[in-house]
Amino acid sequence: MIHTMALAPAPFAMIASGKKTIELRLYDEKRQKIKVGDEILFVNTGNEKEVRAKVLGLNIFPSFAELYAALPLLRCGYTEETLATASPKDMEKFYSPERQRQYSAVGIEIELC
To answer: Which domains does the chain have, with CATH numbers?
Structure first.
């Protein structure tokens, strides 16, 4: 199965370059359909470019706080420069605290196709 996800230009570039190998998302109804072996078509919101990746693993946590404590953040889109300020609160830019309480968090391990 192929799933489509929109990404801002910066995280898209990190995935396209192979630096970001874990995509963080809310484990809502849409993401619960993703299975290991599926593909994700990432679409750059800045220019509509696309890149495909295969799902290698799903790391599901009750919260982003637990996800951040367990996963290697350098594989999740952070850099050496931003690692010191990385926080689960960063996810509030994308998902309200209410939605985060409603659903779990998932780190989707990927490799480029």
So the answer is: 2-112 (2.30.130.30)
